[in-house]
Amino acid sequence: IEDVTKTFNGHTAVDSLNLSVPEGCIYGFIGPNGSGKTTTMRMIVGILYPDRGAIQVFGKELHGARSRRIGYLPEERGLYRKMKVRDVLQFYGGLKMGRSVSKEVDSWLERLDLAKWSDQKVEALSKGMSQKAQFIAAIAAKPELLILDEPFSGLDPVNLDTLRELV
């Protein structure tokens, strides 16, 4: 990230940010609400674009939020609530990979103790279960870069530890 600035209606959300994250590391943003963390993540994945500056991922600028190489868990969860858990996860993974990700999805459902909920609609999940399902949606396509916005929100202590270990 080189000299990136992003404003919304005259409010500067990100101001001349410079950041380089080495490959193979875990990196986190810490700051108060409104400090630009989510905006920066959205710019990295191509949902938003900077007003000034440049963002490169894997050595090049990406255009659009379509990179198969990036998994993204947004702060605002976005699973289709009327779809069955397995179906929605396979749908998202298939969009990223252009092929079936059934084996990967089933493996993650087992690993995160959601297999018994896989044929239920997303709306039947608790907040914590929904959070784990959203995590699966972000990783089922085996991304090289995983961006997690508030990944532990809504998790009980046991599932928080589980997700932390997976990360």
Largest sheet: 3 strands, antiparallel
The overall strand count is 5
What share of residues is helical? 25-40%
Helix-strand sequence: EEHEEHHHEH
Which stretches are low in confidence, meaning pLDDT under 50 for 5 or more residues running?
none
Strand order of the largest sheet: 2-1-3
Shape designation: globular
Terminal CA distance reads 23 Å
Proportion of residues in β-strands: 5-15%
Overall mean pLDDT stands at 90
The count of helical stretches stands at 5
Structural class: alpha+beta
The radius of gyration computed from the alpha-carbon positions, rounded to a whole number of angstroms, is 17 Å
Please specify the SSE layout and strand pairing.
Blueprint: E1 2-8, E2 11-17, H1 37-45, E3 52-54, E4 70-73, H2 85-97, H3 102-111, H4 127-139, E5 145-148, H5 157-166
Parallel strand pairs: 4-5
Antiparallel strand pairs: 1-2, 1-3
Helix pairs in contact: 2-3, 2-4
Structure summarized in a few sentences:
This protein has 167 residues and is of the alpha+beta class. The chain has helices spanning 37-45, 85-97, 102-111, 127-139, 157-166; strands at residues 2-8, 11-17, 52-54, 70-73, 145-148.
Describe this structure in words.
With 167 residues, the chain is α+β, with helices and mostly antiparallel strands. It is built from 5 helices and 5 strands; from the N terminus they run ββαββαααβα. The protein has a 3-stranded antiparallel β-sheet, covered by helices on one side. It has a two-stranded parallel sheet with strand order 4-5. The radius of gyration is 17 Å and the shape is globular. The two termini are 23 Å apart. The mean pLDDT is 90.
